[in-house]
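Homework help board

Subject: predicted structure for assignment chain

Our instructor gave us this sequence and asked us to write out the predicted structure in token form, then describe one feature. I got the tokens but I'm not sure how to describe them. Can anyone check?
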Amino acid sequence: MLDINFIRENRDLVEKSAREKRYSVSIDDLLKLDDSRRTTLKKVEDLRREKNANAEKLKSSKGKPDPKLIETGKKIKASLSELEKTLAEKESALSSSLKSVPNIIFDDVPLGGEEDSVEIKTWGERKTSGIDHLDFATSRDWLDFERGAKVAGNKFYYLKNDLALLENALLQYGLSKVLEAGFSYMTVPDLVSSKILEGCGFNPRTSDQSDEYFVENEDLALIATAEMPLTGYHMDEILDEADLPKFYAGYSACFRKEAGAYGKYTRGLFRVHQFNKLEMYAFCLPEQSKEIHEKILKIEEDIWQGLEIPYHIINIAAGDLGSPAAKKYDMEYWSPVNQKYQEITSCSNCTDFQARAVNCRVRRKDGSLEFVHTLNGTAIPLARALVVILENYARPDGKLTVPKVLRPFLNNKEEL
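My token output:
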């Protein structure tokens, strides 16, 4: 979230950025709410001083306490109790309102909607034909959506035989790349509390776009990405400047309702309700975040260049950015089946937006404290990666050529 004082001092910038991101927020209402909170806070503080002064008079009185002081103390206590309750309500309302204000965008973010995102790089030779991944995998008895739907509902599935082994090979390959780049590997909880969920800033623009599965009667939700538990890893901690940046690679299952996916490409494994993913995450100093954003993007490129998959990189337009991101790159692979680019990975610089919400700070060498910056990027989204490999390496003879970089993780098999 943004700091209320920053919003007050940079009102025009905050309003403009929210408008460019296509979030409907009223800064007027937010500041009025904060004004009301401040007024109530002053009254509470004044009453607390009165309460303490009255208590001191009672302590210093000799003999039997003055009944007037006792009565005054009771009245102050009753008034203070009511005011503190009011203050708590106003602070809660302010906190809720602050969560609706998206992060400020960087100056080099294109303005407009999804169609206004800017291509900044292309790599690889685009193929003119490919084999549909769903038809191929089903014919090989590698993929079973029918039984997945029987046990869990539509868009759940079983990976079987060589496709399941191929998924594991992709994970091992991706893991080798991020470890080489200096990331620490961890598995993460598949559930997070509402505090973490809100701290990540995944605020839908409309109420019907919520993507999370919530656990009934529990303050828990299934994660949509390992970014969520990784954001909370250093919650309420103060990190030393000398220890930053910190790089983590989190592996998890991911669960998504895909509420906002209407009209998007959804065939087979491309968009499903559960999949596995290896996610990169960084905690860093504010002055490091732009450079680290480029570092994460470079790792993503190295992974997909190793797999020899054509792609392009786009700088995402403001209207297509989520609430926490100040800037985001998407990598889209060239689909030889659909003859268009389709999203495979992304990486975002969230500046101090998430860190402020989860209270993660850095102590500078001079002793001062400030919020860290956080960044995230996809290393390998495994279900979608299988789509990419099948489209590019499946052969008309019913065999699959194994990409060279995956062979060491498949007993050096050249084909499946």
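Reply (TA_rk): Your tokens look well-formed. For the description, you could write something like this. The mean pLDDT is 93. That's the kind of observation they're looking for.
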